[in-house]
Design a protein that fits this description.
By secondary structure, the chain is mostly helical. It has a domain at about 35-100. About 65% of the residues lie in helices and about 5% in strands. It is built from four helices and two strands. The chain has helices at about 1-20, 40-55, 65-80, 90-95; strands at about 35, 85. The longest helix has 21 residues, at about 1-20.
Length: about 100
Amino acid sequence: MKALSTMFVAGTLALTLATPVLAGSVGISRSYATAQPNTQTIADLENASEAAQREARTGNKNNVAFGQKSYQIDQLVQRMKDGEQVSQNQVDQALQPVVIW
């Protein structure tokens, strides 16, 4: 009886966790939104890259982190200019300031 009860609880839990994945709105794609390569987004990213480069040049003790951030942003901009699909999450992350621990 205990094994049957355990199996029932496990099945219920699995169904509960899987329901949101299986259920979806009809006609709506489940893919993540992608950032459109518009000029404003590219300009914002280029400004963020330049700001990171300025921070790296001012002698900040962690200037390597700022240089890496600028490089990553430049790579993202190039991908957008080449017509690649870039997720909005990547754009948002690139626009965040450098975090130094």
